[in-house]
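Researcher: Next sequence.
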Amino acid sequence: MIVCRPASLKMIVASVMGALLLSACQSTPQSQQSGLNASRANTAPQAQVSFRQDSIEGAYEVLAAKDSNQLFVAATPLFEDRTAGFVHVLDQDTLQPTQLIQLPRRAFALGLNQKTHTLYVGNTLDGSLLALNSLNGTVKQLIQLGQKEDKGGWEHTRKVIIDEQDNRIFVTNPAEGGRVWIVDGTQGRILHNIDNVGLWPAGAAYDANTKRLFVGQGGKQEIAVINPATGTIEQRFSTGDAKSDKREDSRHFFVNVALSADGKQLFGADANTGKIYVFDTTSGKVENSVDVGPGLLDIVYNPARQELIATNRGVDRDSPAGTGAINILDARTLTVKHRLSAPIHPNSVTLSADGQTAFVTIKAPHGDKSPHYLKGAKDSVLRLNLNQL
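Model: Next structure:
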């Protein structure tokens, strides 16, 4: 990753928001050799794949329901305008498909309000949200957030975060000007349209106890802390490494972020450097960091095991043909406990309700220049039994 204008912005934001492999379905455990350089973080024991299924075309975010056995996978097979998106519903235990929901717009991001049984699908390229009944897959509402752009297309949406307590949806817009939309889930209308959040707002995490929304981005002040009730930015965190908000001066890009269970620490996945940064959420100071690997993308905090799970795609501008990994770290020390090589590009990660199972989408290589390219290969969903690592 470069440290100025990130190649990862197009490669990662265009992938996950809206193209962040494997073929042949497997249902038996399989060990895999680590593909990461041993100089990255620490060497760690090999992990076990519990189940693997390679059957989804254009898979992006994955989301596990906590009150049912549903596993949702957003998918967009084609990028052309006015093409359909899909949500694949899988069984969490077997990864067998239980439902396929076709949508009128392309699907990338996911958020679930389990109190209202509403699944929100982020239509990144169309700048909108689709609200679905999570129990039967019917479309309840289309919520248009982004406006039409002069050059064509729409202002993009990116991350979708749910506030179940107050029935709100938080959506980031990774533009240079930077925007966050706060949406009323009851009426499906915009409560706050927050401009000038920062450079490329991307990842987000919500602390329901303190009612603060943390937004990761690039620029000089890489974390914005928002009060959703007022729609105002109350605090900003900075690594201190960038001298301005100009894109050429940006040194970090926090593409995804996660909060500790007590809300005292914010973990940021920096796609630009391949490092995880830990911020104290009171002072905003950087407490720690660890080098995970090129193409660092998604990150989740697992309170049941006090672990972090982070995916890195394994590629950057200098090594476009690399393979990625799923990294499991001790959240207290940032020590890498397990590293699972997952050719080609691990993408989105989610956890089961009890925190003992992780699900990861894996992207197949798109171009035949990759040594791992296989014509017709589809994207994958991996199921990892964390107790067996």
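Model: The radius of gyration is 19 Å. Residues 296 and 312 are 4 Å apart (CA to CA).
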